[in-house]
Amino acid sequence: MKTKPKRVIGTAGKTCPVNDPRLSGEIQKQLYRWMALIRAFDTKMLGLQRQGRIGFYGPIKGQEAATVGSAAAFEKDDWIFPALREGGVTLMRGFPMEKIVAQLIGNAGDACRGRQMPCHYTFREGHYVSMSSVIATQLPHAVGAAYAARLRGHRIVVAAYLGDGATSENDFHTAMNFAGVWRVPVVFVCQNNQWAISVPFEKQTAASSIAVKASAYGFEGVRVDGNDVLAVYSATRAAADKARAGGGPALVECLTYRMEGHSSSDDPTKYRPAGEAESWVDKDPIARFRRHLESLQLWSDEDESSFQSVIADAIAQAVDTAERFGPPSVASLFEDVCSNGIPPHLREQLAEVSPAVHRP
Amino acid sequence: MATMTLIQAVNDALKTEMRRDDRVVVLGEDVGKKGGVFLATEGLYDEFGADRVIDTPLAESGIVGTAIGMALYGLKPVPEIQFMDFIYPAFDQIVSELAKFRYRSGGQYPAPVVIRTPYGGGIKGGHYHSQSTEAFFVHTAGLKVVVPSTPADAKGLLASSIRGDDPVLFLEPKAIYRTAKGEVPEGEHLVPLGKARVVRPGKNVSIVAYGAMIPRCEKAAELAAAKGIDVEILDLRTLMPYDGDAILETVSKTGRLVVVYEAARTCGFGAEVSAFVAERAIEYLEAPIVRVAGFDTPFPYSLEHVYVPDPNRILAAIEKVAHF
Ligand SMILES: Cc1ncc(C[n+]2csc(CCOP(=O)(O)OP(=O)(O)O)c2C)c(N)n1
Ligand SMILES: [Mg+2]
């Protein structure tokens, strides 16, 4: 990691005034609550996966500051094109928690009708676009949406999220190039958690950072400490403001760390150097931000325990509600393939499915 | 009515739809001032401006990928891929993204993108300017695949594709871009997707075909008529969803079927037609089904005339099933 990231909060909780976005105490507490909620939710979902109650899970742990700090910097009408680890943004945008759990289960309560693997949420009202598993494909979509918004005269910004591994894909370069040429209001937010499954950052690129890649496409890239929510917020906000004002795209690289395995199916001890994960415990973005809030007398142990109990109840309630939905209907397999209902050739195929075979 | 070539009809459809709906935009390589390498978008740049007639960087996945984003946002993008042979950099965007957006989002995000691309032989283009690989796309749930063979159909099918709410791969038979001429209704003209057209009625043998093969089948049918064989030709016009009823109707009438397509034979679209007829109408068949297609070789340069089905090969197949 040759390029030093911008930071606001030191590991001891003290702030560096240069980049400080000077957010009100209330907003800072809101950022903290989102981060803590996402952590609690994430922990619970990984637990449900271990118990066999959901099939797969892609943890966010360690990346809450990058997620919350960036997503909070956009306006509510701005669009989000997420990758795997931005699921927490659905919570920030008001997606009912039981819907999120229903998506993870893949039952009839899922807005996507059980059609995608866990973590592939879609929340149209919150402008949170359906994610594909295929790495980096969302990036040209984000650029196209930004083009469309500008053509229609809407002053919105589009957030295009990606991981460090995604920067090696064709679609990353294509999207960056189109964005630069078209000067569209899109902000690429790269969560550089330094691993793409088992492949470390050094094997992904010979560049000194992801941020430097932006200059080849004619716009600015900035590397921030992705475990520092205020630094992430401040950099993303500046990029979004500039894009909204017609200043074109930007890339924000959040240097962070994936504290869990790649997914519930992964064992990171097979490939990570001993002690690496432990060394990041001290840099935990939530603990660090809490120390900062405490030093400003914005947060106390009592605040923490009462908030933790509120969110624990909310999560338990959401899981309970979500688990009550049945499986998606068999007919739903054949719906939404195209507009105007089920076409004749699929009706015939639906008729071939015996009601007996669909029971899991 | 005006007399137009097939490519002029494509241009007319784009112009008509762009005038009618300001959400329609065109994007691709050289589509702007140049009007496209085949001139399909000629004049659009001057009339609609650079914001709606977009010269893109040279990257097919970017063309389709950004078109998807535009469609999600509410535009009606009509990207052009300069040749079907260059669609593969966008293959992932088409099959994994475009085709699946509506489905995977539980109907929340339709992606009505109409990709136009010239396909097939006819310009001595070797294997990188001549292929006909519609089968890859017909095989992908969520895409519609349309192939016109006349100017009027080119206009009407393209207009219907643009007005629809689904992704469409619109394949233009470049071999007959300028040789197919005909009357085309002026102004709004719609031809529904999914409906085949009887090109000529006949009693003895049915041909099912599409695109640039249609004129060749007509020629073969004339040669067959001189030998006393009355051929019916069905132009499918849409490959997904295809008009199964029309196929069954012609086959149940003649009991003899020749399927003609210029793609490589194995697993080509004709295999689907053959299987469909075998499943649904085998009791009507008086002879085995015969496919006349390209060969399972790369598309050749010097020997293009050997590869692409011509009236004589089609005639031989007609005679084979007629005299079985
Ligand atoms: C095109 C493609 N290739 C491979 C995969 C399998 N895969 C899933 S996630 C992943 C690593 C992604 O790394 P990164 O972009 O850094 O995101 P992270 O998982 O670290 O958030 C890989 C290789 C995929 N989903 N898509
Ligand atoms: Mg990564």
Description:
The complex is a heterodimer of chains A (360) and B (324). Chain A is an alpha/beta fold and 360 residues long. Helix content of chain A is 38%, strand content 9%. Chain A has 11 helices and 7 strands. Chain A has helices at 25-50, 64-71, 88-92, 97-105, 138-151, 170-182, 229-244, 276-279, 285-295, 301-323, 344-352; strands at residues 79-81, 158-163, 186-192, 195-196, 199-200, 220-225, 250-255. Chain A has a 5-stranded parallel β-sheet with strand order 1-2-3-7-6, sandwiched between helices. The longest helix of chain A has 26 residues, at 25-50. The mean pLDDT of chain A is 95. Chain B folds into 2 domains: 2-184, Rossmann fold, CATH 3.40.50.970; 197-322, Rossmann fold (3-Layer(aba) Sandwich), CATH 3.40.50.920. Chain B is built from 12 helices and 14 strands. Chain B starts with a strand and ends with a helix. The model of chain B has no long low-confidence stretch (mean pLDDT 98). The interface between A and B is large, with 46 and 46 residues. Thiamine diphosphate (TPP) binds at residues 84-85, 133-135, 163-166, 191, 193, 195-197, 258, 262 of chain A.
Following the backbone from N to C, one meets helices and strands of chain B in this order, namely: EHEHEHEHHEHEHEEEEHEEHEHEHH
Main β-sheet of chain A, in a few words?
A: 5 strands, parallel
CATH architecture of the largest domain in chain B: 3-Layer(aba) Sandwich
Category by helix and strand content of chain A: alpha/beta
Using only C-alpha atoms, the radius of gyration of chain B works out to: 19 Å
Task: Give a short synopsis of this structure.
Chain A is an alpha/beta fold and 360 residues long. Chain A contains 11 helices and 7 strands.
Keywords:
heterodimer; A: 360 residues; alpha/beta; 11 helices; globular; B: 324 residues; Rossmann fold; 2 domains; five-stranded mixed beta sheet; four-stranded mixed beta sheet; binds thiamine diphosphate
